[in-house]
Amino acid sequence: MHYHCxxxxxxxxxxxxxxxxxxxEPFNEHRxxxxxxxxxSIGGRFSCAHxxxxxxxxxxxxxHHCMLVDEAPVDLEAWTVILVLDEVVVIHTEFxxxxxxxxxxxxxKVLDHLKDHGVKGGYLIxxxxxx
Length: 131
What we know:
Elements: E1 2-9, H1 16-24, E2 39-42, E3 66-68, E4 80-84, E5 88-92, E6 94-96, E7 101-103, H2 110-116, E8 123-130
Parallel strand pairs: 1-4
Antiparallel strand pairs: 1-8, 2-8, 3-8, 4-5, 6-7
């Protein structure tokens, strides 16, 4: 199944693919018990998650899906939010607790999770992962 992920970062990475690869690698389900993906792509099925007029096109061979947090729609939702702080914080908005599926108390709204962690400004990168 495909899942929508938004990665938050304070600064614009010089190489988006390399940045996302480094953020996602510790969560590869083939290499870690904390893993939740077996492959991913930037944008992917969720390429239109950001408003078209707010998408920032990265220089290079491919267009990547990144936007300033200040331009994010208030109703932007994701299954997973990853915050690149001093340590990487992974928030699954729905998760299995061993007995049943549960929803995160803040729901799926990305901006609510950023606010809850005191995050202001920065960038959001859309990632489609399969798990």
